[in-house]
Every structure is written in structure tokens, then in C-alpha cells.
Write a structure and sequence with these properties.
alpha+beta, eight-stranded antiparallel β-sheet, 4 helices
Length: 154
């Protein structure tokens, strides 16, 4: 598993959080995504639940997703092309059994980081639909993780 993946040596500057304002904006955006049909800028949005590996607190992150059959969803840990993987990725790799909200359904899933040829094939499929992810990869020296969320019994 690539939980210990080192940060890249180059990448876009990661956005800084300003505490309460960032939390308020996050909650407001989540309400907007839900109200507008779980889409954002032409992408389907799901809500990933993770547990902070340091704090033990529950976090909900809206993410673009891509279908992989009827029982799996693909998400990309791009962080806008920054040198570091996003916090949600590190939390998810520490506790890969979680839930996602897809539309009005909450689904138990197991997260698995794809690797090698599988990862490249999936990344190529994703960038064919959303070229912005290829732009993010070009900004950083790290390999951007592609995570498969597979439905599990609940």
C-alpha cells in the first residue's frame, strides 16, 4: 500500500486553511452540491467520510468521482497538483473501510489505491473525460493516486 508515499519535490502550492471560515465555506459548498444534484463544474460529486488519523474526528469531503461498473467509484487524490497528497487521502489509507454518499444513498465502501498498469489505465480513462487531472499531474513530481472505492457489505 502506498500510504507512506513521499511528497513530491515539486507541485502547486497547497491552499491554506483559515479555520472557521474554511469550515463554513465547506459546509455551504456541500449544501450547494446536494441541492444542485450532486454535480460541480460538470463533474459528479460524492461525499467521502474519513476519520482523522491524528484527531479521530469525522470529516466529510466532496470529491469528483468516476464510475467503474455498478459497484465501484474512482476518486483522484490530486490536491490541485500540489507536492503533497491531500489529508483525506492519508486518512483514508489509514482507515480504508468507510462510507460515501452518492446521490441520496450512503454506501459502505473499501478504498484501494490502484497501482502500476491498472492505475495508469484508470488515470488515462479519467483524463479522457476530465483533462484537468492531467494538468494537475504535470504540475507535480508525485504520482497522483487513483483510489477505487468498492462497495462492501455493511
Amino acid at each position: 500500500m502506498s500510504f507512506d508515499t513521499r511528497a513530491g519535490t515539486r507541485g502547486a502550492r497547497a491552499p491554506r486553511s483559515s479555520g472557521r471560515v474554511t469550515s463554513w465555506v465547506g459546509r455551504w459548498m456541500s449544501r450547494q452540491h446536494r441541492r444542485k444534484g450532486y454535480t460541480f463544474m460538470g463533474m459528479d460529486v460524492l461525499f467521502l467520510t474519513t476519520i482523522g488519523r491524528k484527531t479521530g474526528e469525522r470529516h466529510e469531503t466532496p470529491l469528483a468521482w468516476f464510475a467503474d461498473g455498478d459497484e465501484a467509484w474512482l476518486i483522484v487524490a490530486s490536491a490541485g497538483g500540489s507536492a503533497r497528497n491531500p489529508d483525506w487521502y492519508r486518512n483514508l489509507m489509514a482507515q480504508p473501510d468507510t462510507t460515501v454518499e452518492v446521490g441520496t444513498d450512503t454506501v459502505p465502501v473499501h478504498a484501494r489505491e490502484t497501482e502500476g498498469d491498472e492505475r495508469q489505465d484508470l488515470f488515462d480513462r479519467i483524463t479522457a473525460v476530465m483533462s484537468g487531472f492531467a494538468d494537475y499531474q504535470a504540475k507535480t513530481s508525485r504520482i497522483i493516486p487513483v483510489i477505487m472505492l468498492e462497495r462492501r457489505d455493511g
